[in-house]
Amino acid sequence: MSWQAYTDNLIATGKIDKASLFSRAGDSLWAESNGFGISSQEISSMAASFDNPSNIQQHGIILGGKKYMLLRADERSIYGRSDAEGVILVRTKQALLVAHYPAGIVAGDATKIVEQLADYLISVQY
């Protein structure tokens, strides 16, 4: 399966409207669906935030030029919200999943889908 299929499968759930897959360090885009528009500076900042979340705790999450309020940040997952939409970032052994859910989607439903894909990638050493 190509990397693009993973992001396309997230979109196909109907719970995610934008998705990207990067290298764990955030220095290489592997796949993207629906034009997230994440800059290299934004993803590098997010990749570093898993180990040191102080910047996003103070300034929020910036992805695609949009600011999201930080809800959770730990060594595996970062969640953010802006009004009724949100973002989910999950780090695996080699990859960084980034997903956006639109207004009208329950955050927990979107989060579960992205976290399950991360669990799968970890199980196959990615």
From TrEMBL:
Keywords: Actin-binding, Cytoplasm, Cytoskeleton. GO terms for molecular function: actin monomer binding; phosphatidylinositol-4,5-bisphosphate binding; proline-rich region binding; protein sequestering activity. The keyword Cytoplasm applies. It is found in: Cytoplasm, Cytoskeleton. Its main location: cytoplasm. GO terms for biological process: mitotic actomyosin contractile ring assembly; positive regulation of formin-nucleated actin cable assembly. GO terms for cellular component: cell cortex; cytoskeleton; cytosol. It comes from the Eukaryota. InterPro entries: PFN, PFN_euk, PFN_sf, Profilin_CS. CDD domains: PROF. Binds to actin and affects the structure of the cytoskeleton. At high concentrations, profilin prevents the polymerization of actin, whereas it enhances it at low concentrations. Belongs to the profilin family. Occurs in many kinds of cells as a complex with monomeric actin in a 1:1 ratio. This is Profilin.
